[in-house]
């Protein structure tokens, strides 16, 4: 039995795609019970399509995929990234999946899955947190039944990538992040503090693409994406679940700025007693990764597919 049952809430996105593949390649550690998609890197139509195409690439059409929210909680339209190409997979053409989206909305699926397996599901948002926030708003009774939240997002002690202070996933829907991160769920943050250390190189991709046709496609996606951002942001979430000894971090207390100004999406993390003001830490912030070991593990796992 896998150590972690997870719902991967994502917006594929190249690094989301690699995170999906890494999860599927690690059945002893990860049981991917479902994928939920959200608008983020690209539109919801593209993220839902891309998630299924990645599952099909790995010959895992049994993984249910649910489409979720097409916009942030409080805005009529979302914001997209440019580094993933027009459709989200680095302009790499993958075959269409021949299995359909599940009929349920992602928010309803999240609620149902947590009630079905109380205390067992780890939620892994690696895109904007809109789906999870609305699941909590719709049914707050799921909160104590969530095992933990392990997410990619935020910038605690470093500059942002969407603004001087904000990371993309939090910037897109800071209101959702505020709802989720203040809900009282045990949570682990893999933000830019650590993911900017998880760098890929051209020589690494040259070696990777020789291993199999699947890895040739994965390397091509990462090569296109890496021209703008050579970091494996989202796979760090899965890698932490597989082997937390790859990482180090600190305990702190997080808050999210929902001001729609230059502080939009800023994640403030207090770690010193004088900044905590008597409050208890509510988050583990990962700050370091052994990148050579991470890349070695990623190559070995993806080769299994």
From TrEMBL:
Name of the molecule in the record: Nucleoside hydrolase
Domain (Inosine/uridine-preferring nucleoside hydrolase): give its ranges.
6-295
Which keywords does this chain's UniProt record carry?
A: Glycosidase, Hydrolase
Q: Which GO terms describe its molecular function?
A: hydrolase activity
| Entries under PROSITE patterns matching the protein | IUNH
> Which InterPro entries has this protein been placed in?
I/U_nuclsd_hydro_CS, Inosine/uridine_hydrolase_dom, IUNH, Ribo_hydro-like
């Amino acid at each position: 039995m896998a150590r972690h049952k997870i719902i991967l809430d994502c917006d594929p996105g190249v690094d989301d795609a690699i995170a999906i593949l890494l999860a599927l390649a690690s059945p002893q550690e990860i049981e991917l019970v479902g994928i939920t998609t959200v608008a983020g890197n690209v539109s919801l139509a593209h993220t839902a399509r891309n998630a299924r195409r990645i599952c099909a690439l790995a010959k895992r059409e049994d993984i249910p995929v649910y489409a979720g929210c097409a916009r942030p909680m409080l805005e009529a339209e979302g914001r997209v990234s440019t580094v993933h190409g027009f459709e989200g997979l680095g302009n790499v053409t993958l075959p269409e999946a021949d299995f359909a989206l599940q009929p349920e909305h992602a928010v309803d699926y999240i609620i149902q899955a947590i009630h079905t397996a109380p205390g067992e599901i780890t939620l892994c948002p690696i895109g904007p947190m809109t789906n999870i926030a609305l699941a909590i708003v719709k049914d707050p009774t799921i909160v104590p039944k969530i095992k933990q939240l392990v997410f990619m997002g935020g910038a605690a002690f470093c500059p942002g990538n969407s603004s001087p202070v904000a990371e993309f996933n939090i910037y897109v829907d800071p209101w959702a992040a505020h709802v989720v991160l203040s809900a009282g769920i045990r949570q682990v943050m893999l933000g830019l503090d650590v993911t900017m250390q998880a760098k890929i190189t051209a020589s690494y991709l040259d070696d990777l693409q020789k291993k199999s046709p699947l890895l040739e496609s994965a390397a091509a996606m990462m090569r296109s994406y890496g021209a703008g951002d050579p970091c494996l942001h989202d796979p760090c979430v899965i890698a932490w679940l597989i082997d937390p000894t790859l990482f180090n971090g600190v305990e702190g207390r997080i808050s999210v700025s929902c001001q729609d100004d230059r502080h939009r999406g800023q994640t403030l993390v207090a770690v010193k007693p004088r900044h905590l003001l008597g409050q208890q830490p509510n988050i583990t912030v990962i700050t370091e990764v052994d990148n050579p070991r991470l890349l070695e593990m990623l190559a070995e796992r993806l080769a299994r597919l």
